[in-house]
Amino acid sequence: MAGDGDGRTASEAYDATPYLPGRGGLPAHRRAAAECRGCPLHRDATGTVFGRGAADARLMLVGEQPGDQEDREGVPFVGPAGRLLRRALEEAGIAEEDLYVTNAVKHFKFTRDETRKRRIHKAPSLRETLACRPWLMAELRLVRPELVVTLGATAGRALLGPSFRVGTDRGVPRPLPDAGNGTRVLATVHPSAVLRARDREEMYAGLVADLRTAVDAL
Q1: What pLDDT was estimated at residue 9?
Q2: Is the pLDDT at 210 greater than 80, yes or no?
Q3: Where is this region: Disordered (predicted)?
Q4: How many CB atoms lie within 10 A of CB 186?
């Protein structure tokens, strides 16, 4: 049977579960995540980019995956999309120090351009997203936020299932499946989608409006 280049056959599931620590808080999980080999994305990425922020945050933001700059620095949302997000959070009246910020996938997936010098973002597959989901669920269990804001399709599908669509499901708080503690989820666009949009001002205003809805829901 054909393999995938990581010593696994095509029928073998990717799964981060064996790498999760049996006990401990966010620091223990961050250390363990650095050694995760639950899917092949670890091979090319600089390292695992775990979540950051307040361990008792009422609001958690979940993006797609680290970008090039995040991968190099080991911190989520420090690139261009992160800068736009910080501006939107400020306009919505959300203090960054009160948040916990993470991604659905903890390693950077990319291709290289023809010169081999630039690393170009490539969206993670559903299989890779599901493999990394145990880390995200552990963060939810440890932080216990009142509300989770998913940024973009990958984050939304990681928490709400493969039928999730940003265009139809955004902007409305709803119960978060599998959370078990009353946590709700609100979907919106990813800041990188705003940066790529032709109607950037309109999309940015929509992001800010959704973040203000999150504030009102707390």
Answers
A1: 47
A2: yes
A3: 1-27
A4: 21
